[in-house]
Specification:
The chain has 14 helices and four strands. The chain has 308 residues and is an alpha/beta fold. The protein has a four-stranded parallel β-sheet.
Length: 308
Amino acid sequence: MIANRSSGEDTGSSTIGALARLALTLTDAVTWNLSRRKRAEFSQADVIVVSLPKSGTTWLRVFLYSYFCSLEGRPFTLKARELAGASLPNLVFTHDLFNHTAEPRLLARIRGRHIIPAHERRTKPKLMLVRDPRDVIVSLYFELRRKGARPNYTGSLGQMIDDPRFGIRTLVNIMNRWIMDWAPLPNFKLVRYENWRMAPSETFRDVLGFLGFANIDESLLQRSMEFAAFENMQRMEASRMFNSAGLSRADPGDLESYRVRRGIVGGYIDYLGTEQILALERGLALLDQRYGYSSPPSGGASPPERTV
């Protein structure tokens, strides 16, 4: 009798698990956002900054808020609310469809709380940061395995390549959706991380122009670029400066857990075997060609570049 009951319980648990997975799959089709707070946040944005995780968002935020704070004569902060009332653009940073796909809570997925609402999706200016998804997936793996990471991932890096939530095809599908939806719009700007690393001054200046800064203070631009340098951001993260902005919970003893980690352009090859790299290449082959990523990695012939 005990054996039979145990078998029945196992079957019941399996059924519940299967139903939960089915429900999560069905919510992939959600296009609405029923969160009043999140809808208000998106509607109040002057510009929405969209990216996959590990695509340079922290670097951009540190630079922009350093520039903004310098313009206003205020101490550096990454908290937008501390700049409330200033004549500065209100930026909302989001991972949009990625966060929706990665969200493990069924109710949050049903509500679509991470999704940019339909009206804002069509009308708001959008700055999209992109990075070679092969590098993204390796950096993302180290991000998701951190203690306390949410969402988190407990499998191996090789397993994550084919994972339905975090794998290469999921990243590629999200990127394809974004560029198909937004590339035709006049208020859309695409910034490739690899080009950004090659010409940071020009790219930062271009981004500020897109945000509405007609007259750029060159001395503040240079100072903010130095403030956002890789080594300085690592020091800030080590001193827990990012924690107050909800950007880091790194383990001081594990450099791979840092948000400002290693980030070499094309560095994914240092962590993967031949078959795993081929799996990434097969996924990358499905990426919209307008992104300009191919094999070998873009910038692969250049000296290694540090990124975030």
